[in-house]
Write a structure and sequence with these properties.
Layout (H helix, E strand, L loop, with lengths): L1 H15 L4 H5 L17 H6 L5 E3 L6 E3 L1 E4 L6 H10 L3 E3 L8 H12 L8 E6 L5 H14 L5 E6 L10 H13 L2 E8 L3 H8 L7 E5 L8 H12 L3 E5 L13 H13 L3 H10 L6 E5 L3 H12 L6 H13 L9 H7 L6 H12 L4 H9 L3 H6 L6 H6 L6 H12 L1
The structure holds iron/sulfur cluster.
The site of iron/sulfur cluster has 14 residues, from helix 14 and helix 15.
Length: 411
């Protein structure tokens, strides 16, 4: 009994200090929240710190750090300065993040550190673009906000189906590269990912893709095949939503306690284990993680720097955990529930907003996104018969229950 209680106490301790298990094991130097020079990377500190390793991004020939900053909640310079010091120089933002403030923060860093621009790999996205004119307009705004003449990698934001990769878009990409305003092009996707990746693998003008990928989706054969097709065709891959967090309200279950206990014994937290699991797949060049605090950053850096590989037993524990908790995670396979729900093609979007609300704590953003769903769909949410969709859902999600939760939390 005592051993069990000690283990649980330790789990609670690690959770409370923000998943810093590996950080302390590696005895990383302390990172101060403030530095005397508020504007520039501290060169002396930078020289002392280990740098996050790099991998090649597909056929682009560019090497990027294996841990990248998801700047979806970026609202100060401290995070950027610390990322820079550790070599986390791939910054993923978008036209829409923080209402434009994420790009403006990056712009402040760039204008104060002009000489470092070449060391950064800045990625942004044309959020909500319906056509090439929208893409161009958003790109121009992003360039201006970030005080830069070019964006290293430019994405169409949230591709839903491969048919959106049109010949007209291809022509725009060719022109944008010729003008020198973007170096590389691709898309991000968190819906129908396997279909989108498989479609892109047949095209020669997609340089890189950022896709949802984590220890849960690793178990999906269709996803594995699509990842391999992209890798074989030289498309660079970056993983996002790497932690595989739940959709609905997260109540700690016995399965959660078991997986936490398992990784504590190895000296990791489950967050660090989830990052290590993605990084173990070398077809992916980087794991992009949204980070808001220096504690989160150093914990994730420790996972990226740690050379120990997950054992077969660790991978098995993650796979078993994914299986046992699958009904709490929406895998984004929207074509499946959409085909069973002629009245509502927004189920997977709503599931994602619920995940932002419950697991990421991005409550205002989740509500804002929910409000963008057509009003007639939102009004009908509780009247729709979800039984056919629930029967087809490979994750066995209680869709009706989660839609009710979405209406309660997001409306
Ligand atoms: S609700 Fe089920 S079928 Fe629909 S996207 Fe999520 S996991 Fe796939």
């Amino acid at each position: 009994m005592k051993v069990k209680r000690d283990l649980l106490d330790r789990r609670k301790f690690l959770k409370n200090i923000g998943a810093a298990g590996l950080t302390s094991l590696l005895a990383l130097p302390e990172v101060k929240a403030e530095t005397p020079d508020a504007n520039a990377p501290a060169k002396t500190a930078e020289a002392k710190l280990p740098q996050v390793p790099k991998r090649q991004l597909g056929r682009t020939g560019v090497k990027i750090p294996i841990l990248s900053l998801g700047a979806n909640r970026l609202d100060d310079q401290i995070m950027l300065r610390n990322c820079f010091k550790w070599g986390v120089t791939y910054w993923d933002t978008s036209h829409s993040y923080m209402g434009g403030n994420s790009e403006l923060e990056i712009g402040r860093f760039v204008s104060k550190n002009q000489k470092q621009r070449g060391k950064l790999f800045i990625v942004s996205k044309a959020s909500g673009a319906q056509n090439e004119k929208d893409v161009e307009e958003r790109l121009q705004t992003s360039l201006e906000r970030m005080n830069t003449d070019f964006i290293d990698l430019y994405f169409v934001h949230g591709l839903e189906e491969p048919e959106q990769l049109t010949t007209k878009l291809k022509q725009w990409v060719k022109q944008a590269k010729k003008r020198g305003v973007i170096r590389f092009f691709g898309f991000s996707t968190h819906k129908n990912m396997a279909d989108n990746l498989a479609g892109a693998a047949k095209l020669d003008w997609i340089d890189a893709i950022m896709t949802t990928y984590n220890f849960r989706l690793m178990q999906d054969k269709k996803m594995q095949k699509a990842v391999q097709a992209c890798y074989d065709s030289g498309i660079g891959l970056v993983a996002m939503k790497t932690l595989g967090l739940r959709t609905g309200i997260s109540i700690e279950t016995d399965e959660d306690k078991k997986i936490t206990g398992h990784f504590i014994e190895q000296g990791f937290t489950e967050t660090q284990a989830a990052i290590k699991a993605v990084l173990a797949d070398e077809r992916f060049s980087s794991a992009c993680v949204g980070m808001r605090s220096i504690t989160e950053l150093t914990s994730n850096i420790a996972a990226a720097l740690d050379k120990r590989k997950l054992s077969n037993r660790d991978s098995k524990a993650l796979a078993e955990y994914a299986g046992a908790t699958c009904s709490g995670y929406c895998a984004g396979c929207a074509h499946i529930c959409n085909s069973a729900l002629p009245d509502n093609s927004y189920v997977s979007d709503i599931m994602r907003y619920l995940m932002y609300y419950n697991s990421y704590g991005r409550r205002q953003e989740a509500k804002k996104l929910f409000a963008q769903i057509p009003q007639d769909v939102r009004k009908r949410l509780l009247r729709i018969d979800y039984s056919a969709a629930e029967a087809h859902c490979p994750q066995r999600l209680p869709i009706r229950k989660l839609m009710a939760e979405a209406v309660r939390s997001l409306a």
